[in-house]
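Sequence only, no structure available. Ideas?
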Amino acid sequence: MTQTQTQTQTQRQTQTLSWKLVIDSADPHAQAGFWAATLGYLVEDNSPLVEQLLAAGAVPEAITTQAHGRRAWLDLAAARHPDDPYDEVSGTGQGRRLLFQRVPEPKTVKNRLHIDVHSAPGQRDAEEARLVELGARVVRTCDEQGGSWVVMVDPEDNEFCLS
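Reply:
I predicted one. Tokens follow.
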């Protein structure tokens, strides 16, 4: 392999990739609303695209719903960071984004992946109270040598931590 080929391969291996976190859900719209409020994100507005596709007869009305005061996909809802780019036609976030997809089966085991929410210094108790008001529940408080945090669950019992 030549030096140029090695450099090209290294560049491909270190390229930054875009991502979104997809979370199974019984009620994607409620979950998107909860997490948007929790993180200070926006619930994505896909209504222009949904309305356009309905008007063109490209999708049936049965796969849409009214959520957050507008037409939306029945089985998908997302929360996106307000400062990140998004597609103006579809409303789809192109940066930090949580996508909730409806699934028929309930959650049955502990998450293999969870979100850590970091409060401002000295504000953890106030943030915990705010999240409980939004529908979260406290599972336990952890105090260890490395730090202290609260294990919580969202309205669908997905674990997350608050520090």
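The radius of gyration is 19 Å.
Hope that gets you unstuck.
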